[in-house]
Amino acid sequence: MSELEQKAINTIRLLAVDAVAAANSGHPGAPLGMAPAAHAVWQTMKFNPKNPKWINRDRFVLSNGHACALLYSLLVLYGYDLSIEDLKQFRQLGSKTPGHPEALDVPGVEVTTGPLGQGISNAVGIALAQKQFAATYNKPDFQISDSNIFVFLGDGCLQEGVASEASSLAGHLKLNNIIAFWDDNHISIDGNTNVAFTEDVLGRYKAYGWNILEVENGNTDVDGITKAIEAAKKSDLPTIIRLPTTIGFGSLAEGTHGVHGAPLKADDIKQLKTKFGFNPEESFVIPKEVTELYNKHVSENQQVENDWNKLFAAYKEKYPTEGAEVERRLSGKLPEGWEKSLPVYTPNDKPVATRKLSEIVLSNVVPVVPEIIGGSADLTGSNLTRTTDMVDFQHPDTKLGDYSGRYIRYGVREHGMGAIMNGIAAFGANYKNYGGTFLNFVSYAAGAVRLSALSHHPVTWVATHDSIGLGEDGPTHQPIETLAHLRAIPNLSVWRPADGNETSAAYKSAIESTSTPHVIALTRQNLPQLEGSSIEVASKGGYTLIKQDKPDVIIAASGSEVAIAVDASKKLSEEGIKANVVSIPDFLTFDKQDQSYQLSVLPDGVPILSVEVMSTFGWSKYSHEQFGLNRFGASGKGPAIYEYFGFTPEGVADKAAKTVQFYKGKDVLSPLNKAF
Amino acid sequence: MSELEQKAINTIRLLAVDAVAAANSGHPGAPLGMAPAAHAVWQTMKFNPKNPKWINRDRFVLSNGHACALLYSLLVLYGYDLSIEDLKQFRQLGSKTPGHPEALDVPGVEVTTGPLGQGISNAVGIALAQKQFAATYNKPDFQISDSNIFVFLGDGCLQEGVASEASSLAGHLKLNNIIAFWDDNHISIDGNTNVAFTEDVLGRYKAYGWNILEVENGNTDVDGITKAIEAAKKSDLPTIIRLPTTIGFGSLAEGTHGVHGAPLKADDIKQLKTKFGFNPEESFVIPKEVTELYNKHVSENQQVENDWNKLFAAYKEKYPTEGAEVERRLSGKLPEGWEKSLPVYTPNDKPVATRKLSEIVLSNVVPVVPEIIGGSADLTGSNLTRTTDMVDFQHPDTKLGDYSGRYIRYGVREHGMGAIMNGIAAFGANYKNYGGTFLNFVSYAAGAVRLSALSHHPVTWVATHDSIGLGEDGPTHQPIETLAHLRAIPNLSVWRPADGNETSAAYKSAIESTSTPHVIALTRQNLPQLEGSSIEVASKGGYTLIKQDKPDVIIAASGSEVAIAVDASKKLSEEGIKANVVSIPDFLTFDKQDQSYQLSVLPDGVPILSVEVMSTFGWSKYSHEQFGLNRFGASGKGPAIYEYFGFTPEGVADKAAKTVQFYKGKDVLSPLNKAF
Ligand SMILES: [Ca+2]
Ligand SMILES: [Ca+2]
């Protein structure tokens, strides 16, 4: 390592230390330990700070997101749209330097990390998307996509199950564009990792099918790191490099968990700066020669991007169809008129399970929207997520598919799937990707789902078997709290379509979405096609399906209970009770409508009864009375369970009649009519 | 294998096949493949079908719970309280044989399985508890606890991250009482496992520190299985045995995923019965000699239990203190007067963070309640879950603790921790066990949390850093939807105490619980001790803290927002508005109170405003207006974020005044006053 390199590394280190000190909060330990690797990696990476979304950039994922002072320092040094001033505002309200890297707010941050295990799993998704993109559009004479994905991860990430799931799949898929560095510093928050984490990490990754490498000393051996990167690039397998480092390198408390999550003391910072050849009285210093070193890499990279632009221009000439498609995708536009492929239904069409209706949508749209790729967590035949003309995404050697395949066999790895989906979305090129599992097991992936919403990844969960209606599999498989959980996540669309038109509306919303993830909850059992539904009305998230003059009651329902509510309404009219029926397939979309529309659906003056065969939790925002299931379900035939719990036209009519009776003579305010 | 053994194995197989056929639903494939191992394992196990909760029984965990027809068949054959008639009712509503094994409903089922990966992880918890119990109470001359934990798991369980987490920890802890069988049948729902799962499983488990064994042919080699069990019992490490089997062994479709999750066809069943030497026209047949074979094992086991009873009687004489304690624990009684150790506070006591108040509770109760054990997912210093006199639960060779230790270093493995906690509870001996993490990361364990609630495991999550008040770590760490998610789970107590007395009440509820799991959400920041709180009133789950005559408005809040509501009430009184303040630390407990009490807290005639710094989802069940945070949080100093979002006395008073204004002249019905 040259003296200049050493200075550059120490500059990274001290910027991170100064940022944490200024905030009086944060994590200096990992930046001090990982700065040499960060320097070595970024000096080999291709990227353009002025065009951070360039599609053929190499990606850097900081899976141990608490080390973000390291990442922010790199972004400043390489000239991204992040300044020393931003660094001084580290962890302050409203700054561009939040306490964990937020992809949404900080240019150059590829994915939001912090929740451990997510970053490395996102990286698997980015790598998968890169392979799929390259296999789809590269030509023998035009490698328009060939980027690598670099990952830093710590002991914490390696302990998380989500990382295990994603890493196992990455090994299976032989995603050799992943180059991961394990920050092996023997420290986690509880102290020495020997209190809980003594497994043979490299042995495990070898078992996953990864290429395993080691660098002798991560604190000093930049050349060794660079050589490991070169070796990794030649591998046919994803690579993990064990990098022994000293947490808090150079600090008086180096090598202890004391430097993990608290600022260094003032005198410690001073001795550190002195030790590193910096003025102990100055902060946030960037030596000129360091700026020059990194500027040089940026300008070389500018040439790399220029060359790529020329390559792509030539590509478009030689392969105009593919070129136009790539260009369209990079612009974020869907194919013109794609939505015409969405199926529409009339009440004369036969009853069909919404999971089957979902399959029909996919069969129609997958051929016309090439950016759609999807898969299932080993429930393909139940989720009905694989259309007949989809090819599996597999390493070609397997003879089971190839890298241009659009169907991903995730295995029984829901959380890994969720994090990988986020990575696919983060790759760019407007990928719209979906993953199938039972609605109940979306919960396994809760950690990834909330990050989809936070990071605005427009991924879609095809969540079948959405209620007690799944029947015999019983309470372990029947969602009760799941929709409440998902509906409470900001920026998550949770659709529960009631028929074919609503299913098409759900997919229309999902595919057109650029910043909101979707969960589409679908039935195992057949549902009739409703009179009054359409893609257009359902696209408001909530609408009146049966509208009568001066209704006595409104029954608001979702999914499989809408048809029951319709039948209950008919039954009630025989008793002289006028019951409107409202379908609310997606709370988030309904909440986005203007209040006058909302109040036209759920007006003042009429008591509202909600009906849904799961937890009533949250339904009181739309209703005065709630009929649901605030207990776990039961194992038995689906219709028998519905009957048992009273989710029948008679049962719903009875609750509606009681609602009318109770509110007779009382002033009734719409729950949507609010004081503020 | 003898002819009789073969007949016994085929009896198990055909009972399972007949049960699935009768239900016309279920999973015949795994029972056909795993019956030989089931026979071999159960013939080595000690247990008493008439006393299924005998504390020193060996445990059997069917991690691939969909194979439950196998387990139910064994329970019938060994004479548990489950009959052939029950088997004929397989998967029917109200039967004792639900579609997945439910520990709560079926005697002999140790833990509820079906959601993949949970069973093996529960088994790690059972094994941990057994080691802790043995190390605490065994004496050199009295091995009163020495049971083994047998586990069956399939390819699905092995792909789940939760199983990876728990298995890594089991290897670290050297839990050599675990003997797991991997049903290596190369099939999962998507077909051949080679589409997604090609890792080297045994290599991975070796890396975790397990003993790995293989049986050549799981379909036929019962002696090989028995020998593997013997070898496993001698190991110093947990053991996993690779058992190659043929899914659907004997069926015309054996070896394909077609036999995984659907009944065999009628003619297939007939040829199967003929092949196995049974009458193809008969169903649910148990040959007399098979009954005798298994009865023999049961009566030998009866002697084993009798011997243990004698041993324990002698133990009680020689070690009266320990004997009395074991007896008390087995009876499910807590130590007399334990609750006197709960701290109480007055308004003069200083402001303290509820996470710190939680630590004080633990410091007080851990010494007097030996059945309390706990740990943290690598956040000990943040969760404050380790009292100063706790010893780590570690293998003694590590010199970091020993097996009588009561503090568990879970590592960064939240989901594994949740499943292990369930296993500890399932062991028996009235273990009350807790696990710490940030509230936001309880979501990582959602799959295990819902099973705690479903299976009535009284485990406790110490969930600190419970809001935006955690500050700088930012949106990735700040819960928004988490409480809504957890509150919507049936039978889950979700406490969010507002001060010291409420924290004590939360722990009182948790420790006295025998069938309801608890989450205790705790602040990072200091909170004042409230005037009017007490363990007694808080134990109602909701109560009036500030009560005024003819109030204009009620402010209902939880946790850190209660003190803000109190200050808002004072501010409002200056404006001539009378605002009652209600604290609702636990929805579930409050919902269990009688309606007259509930209506005394939230009566008709007064508009109610809820205040909580996270999603308002669900709060409309108690309030007319909701002030909360229906978006993700922000990175910054905690107080600055509270201020930014308006969670100040002024901000709350403003919302309350608007509420009063809006409802002026309107009839106001309590949201708890219901039509049905
Ligand atoms: Ca570490
Ligand atoms: Ca299998």
From TrEMBL, chains A, B:
Record domain Transketolase-like pyrimidine-binding: where: 352-529
InterPro entries per record: THDP-binding, Transketo_C/PFOR_II, Transketolase-like_C_2, Transketolase-like_Pyr-bd, Transketolase_bac-like, Transketolase_BS, Transketolase_CS, Transketolase_fam
MF terms (GO), sorted A to Z: metal ion binding; transketolase activity
Residues annotated as the enzyme's active site: E414 (proton donor)
Catalytic function, reaction form: D-sedoheptulose 7-phosphate + D-glyceraldehyde 3-phosphate = aldehydo-D-ribose 5-phosphate + D-xylulose 5-phosphate
Primary enzyme class: transferase
CDD domains named among the record's database cross-references: TPP_PYR_DXS_TK_like, TPP_TK
Record text on cofactor binding: Binds 1 Mg(2+) ion per subunit. Can also utilize other divalent metal cations, such as Ca(2+), Mn(2+) and Co(2+). Binds 1 thiamine pyrophosphate per subunit. During the reaction, the substrate forms a covalent intermediate with the cofactor.
Cofactor(s), by name: Co(2+); Mg(2+); thiamine diphosphate; Ca(2+)
Positions of the record's site feature: Important for catalytic activity: H27, H260
PROSITE patterns in UniProt: TRANSKETOLASE_1, TRANSKETOLASE_2
Gene Ontology, cellular component aspect: cytosol; nucleus
Spans through the membrane: 60-80
NCBIfam families, per database record: tktlase_bact
UniProt similarity note: Belongs to the transketolase family.
Protein role: Catalyzes the transfer of a two-carbon ketol group from a ketose donor to an aldose acceptor, via a covalent intermediate with the cofactor thiamine pyrophosphate.
Official protein name in the record: Transketolase
Native source species: Cerrena zonata
